[in-house]
Design a protein that fits this description.
mainly alpha; NCE101
């Protein structure tokens, strides 16, 4: 006996991932705003260092 499950979407097939990514980005932004890092340890500065290492 096989049990068949239907996929249940919260918004739609494409709306759910977009909604999840937007909520994740918003929560990360709020976390970074409420928990500041010392100078030189922010995400933007880390990405700048990594890009410089990769491409220079």
């Amino acid at each position: 006996m096989a049990i068949i499950f239907r996929k249940i979407y919260f918004i739609s097939k494409w709306g759910d991932p977009i909604f999840a990514l937007s909520i994740g980005c918003l929560s990360y932004f709020l976390y970074e705003r409420n928990h500041p890092h010392p100078p030189g340890n922010s995400l933007i500065e880390l990405l700048k260092r990594k890009v410089y290492i990769w491409f220079c």
